[in-house]
Amino acid sequence: MFVVAVSGLGIWWMLKPDDSAPRPMATPTSSPSEPTTSSEPTRRTRTTTAAPPPPTDSYDSQLMALLSAGHDSSNCEPISPPAGTALATVDCGPATTPGGPQSTRYSLFGDPSALDAGFGEAVRVNSELLECPGSGVDSPTTWHYTETPDQVAGQIACGTYNDRPDVVWTNDENLLLADAQGPDLEELHNWWLQYG
Predict the structure, then answer these.
(1) Where does the record place the region Disordered (predicted)?
(2) CATH code of 165's domain
(3) Is residue 62 part of a domain?
(4) Residue 28 predicted with pLDDT over 90
């Protein structure tokens, strides 16, 4: 009985909500072996409060649990096979949140190297890379939460794909890649800041 109580307490401690959740902000990072990227002075609020599902769930259900606000099973569906080296990919129609994208593709990866390669490919197919609105820096760049300016939370790039504004980003903690298109780059970027 004691072992069950201690185990239950340990599980609660690992899964309890973090009341000090940091807020995101873009930051400059570069390493000598990589092309230099700039940062954008961007602040974001954390949009995912629940821990990702346990590994026993399917990759599709793990990915569905990570979608941005405005995307869920009513406007998104898994595709098979997943894109590239992703474990799961979900295509979504118009977001239900204000200023949201007309279409978004989310992919879940198995490790950071595969995520970085997926981001690189998504950026490579853009016809033009642009500064993200209000950033004053070239794409691609990294972003971070305001409270943790020394911790890169992911990468972001703004540009055009098939003559449509495009924002591509990663969330490194969740091994998530998202690629969203909409009619207006500034509106799309503002949506990412709030919900992405």
Answers:
(1) 16-59
(2) 3.40.1000
(3) yes
(4) no
**Residue 1, domain member (yes or no):** no
Q: How far apart are CA 13 and CA 69, in angstroms?
A: 27
Reported pTM: 0.74
Asked if residue 15 belongs to a domain, the reply is no
Q: What is the 3-state secondary structure of 20-78?
A: CCCCCEEECCCCCCCCCCCECCCECCCCCCCCCCCCCCCHHHHHHCCCCCCCCCCCEEE
Is residue 169, in this structure, part of any structural domain at all?
yes
Look at residue 188 and give its three-state secondary structure: helix
pLDDT tens digits for range 115-138: 999 999 999 999 999 999 988 889
The mean per-residue pLDDT over the stretch 96-125 comes to 97
Place of tokens 């939370």: 153
Length of the chain: 196
